[in-house]
Structure prediction request, 384 residues.
Amino acid sequence: MVRPMRIGEIEKQNLESLRKVRAFAILAKGDTPKAIGKETFLVPSQSDREKRYTVTHNGEWRCNCPDFQKNHGMLLCKHIQSVQIFLKLREKEDILEIKTELETNEIRCDRCNSINVIKRGKRKTKAGIRQRYECKECGRRFTPEPIKHRKTNSKLIALTMDLYFKGLSTRKIADTIYQFYGIKVDHTTIMRWINTYMAKINGHVNKLEPNVGEIWHNDEQKININGEWFYSWNTLDSDSRFLISNAITKERSDFETKAVLKKAKRMAHGINPRAMITDGMPSYPSAVKDVFGEDIIHVYNVGIRDRINNNVLERYHGTYRERDKVMRALDSVETARQMNENLRTYYNFIRKHSALNGMTPAEMAGINLNLGRNRWMSLITQSL
Ligand SMILES: [Zn+2]
Ligand SMILES: [Zn+2]
Prediction:
């Protein structure tokens, strides 16, 4: 039997403060704990990038890391302390955010976003008497939502996006929101939020011009949608890993291949690669030359899928698999296309890659949106 290690109170404090320093370092790196339940958090392991430790707080703090286990729960490990600090910081920041918002409170038209608005009478609502406004630009009359509400809403939506792209079902997301905020949201509302806000975000990010490199990869793989087989195509920039474009088609003849490459060219805002790497599919050679011109270097190889393509595309396919469960439940090719488009945005703009030194492909391609700590929240705000 292993006897628990005895530690004196002062020694315990010293050992814990050592771990507290490491906890701050975890947060400073941007490895924020992820709440997956009311009292359960995931903290990335600092030695193994693929690993996450589970910190729980049911009366007492526990962590499943070796350090915590080794000390028989008598020392608060760096993971637990990073959650504690994180929760404290979050509280403070909430207050700060609301305060700043109150101080710089601007009423904007809810149709054209102009600040050229004037007060125009009051309106009785369930929440009491509220000020009405009229927009001098477009003539819209509106009653703005109270600030606290607006802030909560964008927070909930940012949280929704975060959980959704991490693979939680809409029901689980509704459940989490209820546990954290005590707000009941139907799971169909969650899906509507995702669709509405992703459409705005996609529209915004697709206008940005990525500085893509000279070598692109193109591949296609079979996917099953509601029992039927389709082809899922990806065009990826080799240097930045920016996913230039994707498509879903029923066939993969000359016609579809050309259409897919044309779309990639359009999505890259007309930029031509100097080299295109594809597998040995027979429809590639003529389609590649047709779309990108005779001077294009086409690296065309039956065996290349294993040697090159998969390495570069692996990251993206990893992202894809996270949403695989949802993809399998897709009811139509239209929903699959929508989902594909959403995943592209998530992959390019939100997800940081360890292979890119913690940067996103968009940042690698010279698009810096300064998304800060809450990446979803900033992206939503910028897209509205
Ligand atoms: Zn731990
Ligand atoms: Zn207006």
